[in-house]
Please model this.
Amino acid sequence: MARQNQTETAVLGALSVRPMTGYALREAIRDVLGYFWSESFGQIYPALAELERGGYVERRDSARPGASMFAITPSGTARLKERLSQPVQPVPPRNGLMLRLFFGRQLGPEACRALVLEARADAERRLAQYQSIRQELTEEQEDPEDRPYWLLTVSAGEHTARAAIAWADEALDALSELDQATAEPRPRKEGTTT
Amino acid sequence: MARQNQTETAVLGALSVRPMTGYALREAIRDVLGYFWSESFGQIYPALAELERGGYVERRDSARPGASMFAITPSGTARLKERLSQPVQPVPPRNGLMLRLFFGRQLGPEACRALVLEARADAERRLAQYQSIRQELTEEQEDPEDRPYWLLTVSAGEHTARAAIAWADEALDALSELDQATAEPRPRKEGTTT
DNA sequence: GGGCACATGTAAGCTGTTACATGATTAA
DNA sequence: TTAATCATGTAACAGCTTACATGTGCCC
Model:
């Protein structure tokens, strides 16, 4: 219970890299953390307001009127460290692809093949993106202290994507065989017809 | 929007294998689908009631008074197929481990190593469990039509777990190096001190 | 007869998403 | 001047979890 507000952790973390407006925060979370984290828009502003009330972030003037830069305070940094030290809360899994494949008998081998092909293409796309992120990270000179940690997460993405591709290839083979077995229900092996 | 009620799909799917009580349904979802799906208890009975209203499942008498067996009806099977054919809805990711590592600079290399070690141990545990499930599935003779599909999901779990282990080993190495670099901030390479 | 596993449900409450409302600045 | 982008927020609602309430049958 009391699944603590992980939005706070993500917001404080992003602000620990550099001060931003709420809008930029949303984009940073979407574009940078997007592969393993998400925050909906309606969470970010309330979280910022709450953090401001607690003195963990402060609002500064920004170039644009009507906009504010939010910056993390020393007590915010302390809170971030505290939050990051909490045990990782397991997320109840909900993998729609696996659900479909598990009951794949209802769909048949062909439809399952299509699902797996789609998943394979997704994984290829992700792999390519991870690799271009890795490229960017190794080239640019900003945030040298953060970079090695960022690369860990990129590496996790690459491993996961490669595993997904390898699995998909195996699954496609298995489904092909299954398809043939269904089309030709009696193998020529003797003795099965009694 | 209208994130359709995926609970229905899981419930219909489970009942497509065999009729069950609501209680058994919960256990089946936890124990069999648990690695890639979860339903909370408070969702299952309302879903069953809703499905019964729609004529997709029917309630039969069971051995125990006070308990009912729920069985899928022909229109329920049709609905299941329809549901399974819907595109897979991407789940907004929320990987607490990656969030911590991404902001790992705040925690330091040692604490990150501990996190990765924990993740590695988890993956090992899961891998062992997948392999014992595979064993069971290849031995038993029940549900021969479903089995090949179930094995696909087991295989996905194995691939994912192995990838997690490989990634963890790589990450542990990287973190060790980082730790040494932090402890000894000036490498003996000449010329760095101007 | 006490405890445990089986069994069915409801209610409160939290989290998170989507849509809406509003307004400033900039570029076409 | 109109559209797009930047910017800040709120409100309604869907989804899910947890805890509670209640009862039966079986085994020790």
Notes: DSSP finds seven helices and two strands in chain A. Chain A has a mean pLDDT of 92. Residues 3-85 of chain A form a domain with the Arc Repressor Mutant, subunit A fold (CATH 1.10.10.10).
